[in-house]
Amino acid sequence: MTQPTPAETSEAVAGQVDGKVPAYSWYALGVLVIVYVLNFVDRNIISILAEDIKADLGLRDDQIGFLYGTAFGVFYALFGIPLGKLADSWHRVRLMTIGLAVWSAFTALSGFAKNFAALSVARIGVGVGEATASPSAYSLISDWFPKKMRATALAIYSSGLYIGGGISLLIGGAIVENWNEAFPTDAPLGLAGWQAAFIIVGLPGLLLALLVFTLREPVRGQSEGIVTPPSKDPFRGFFKELVAVIPPFTLFGAAQAGPRGILVNLAGAVVIGGIAYFMATVTGNAQQWGAVGIGYYAIFSWASTLKRRDEPTFSLIWGTPAFLTTILGYGMVAFMSYAASFWAAPYAIRILEEAPSTAGWWIGGPGAVAGFLGVILGGRMADYLRERMPTGRLIVVAFGLTAAAPFLYVMFTTLNPTVFYFAAFMQSLFGSSALGAAAATTQDLVLPRMRGTATATFFLATTLVGLALGPYMAGQVSTMTGSLSTGGLSLLIAVPIGLVMLFIAYRTVPQAEQTLLERARAAGEDV
Which pTM value belongs to this model? Predict the structure, then answer.
């Protein structure tokens, strides 16, 4: 990784303020898209492997949902907070390089898992590594591209989500079938097809990390001409955030606020723990709700300490209803999209009796195209509408939520493979259109130095709401009713909840943007 020269810095700042996008910005964005593609290949490949894993390890649908969503998502969210803080103060390129190597290694290690516990640990490792990617990438992209191009640039980056998700199904289905056919007995190292698939997709990331390391770190804040000098002690904030979100060290952070701080923290732990215990009793799934309870308690503790340590950041994120309702509204889109994407392949294999390679081809290939088109077109439409009205981007988020719902219904009720694949394509097309708009809205509501933390908070909604609850809920309902179709249809509860959140955001975002600097100064920011 190289630093820009003073001349390059001046040119970059001038260019970004004038709205020009240097060629290097497009090259760097292309590299980040490849990283995000691999990110979602490693994350999503478990979908096409789910039926084989379930049979080999004797798992239930709710446990499969836990492995895909909760085991990954909770730790992705928790470590995203300190890593988001590190992205705000340290070399973002280096951080992404390290994270890519870590999650690729744990993906490969997933291939050696022999039981539910070992696979859970590997998925947690993947989540921790991947938590470095988007806080770094969102912050980098926001400095490489001017504000008027931000939703488009973030949408292009986010297209890696859908391309990677689609490729994972294509690759995974082909690997597992070919491996099992080639080695019906005496396979190398005794590996089943699903184990070989994890190893094969994990190793390339270690090579890609070398390319990422060569990217140049841009000037922080250059897109607005608000150049932010490098932090003198970048890891100090990281370790503070790390302690703030990891129980039981959260009590030490609470203690800094005195006896009242400890009492508030313990009260939060009791309330969240009680809800988690109740849900675990009702569902009979202690690991799911134990992990979710830890996640929500950790977020509560972190937000409490953030208010004391960085009042301006807390005020612009947790103290701004426009920000919170935007991320929760998009969280409902993620709730449906993650679950539909994950359970599509098991539904095709189990209910429609499609072969894994066939399901992978017709879900993965068209799904990648649909996701790519949806996120790009949605990002462009979001920027178009944003130029004409302050809330234009939120209209795109609401469209993504509502337009995808009818096709989700068709997906989990049809017994016709052709209809199923078409519905899956349309669901992905419309559901993906909301991401760029929601992400850009959150970036517009904070200062440049807060972007990594804002991104981490945005992904709390997509993970602790969307990823940790959506796939699991469909699996839990499927386990309780004996019907994967019913499990899929239960996801539609997200539509009315999401619309309420987005309506509030629609009413509050314009004023929040207009008063950004005023509210930051009132909270103690020197701007």
Answer: 0.81
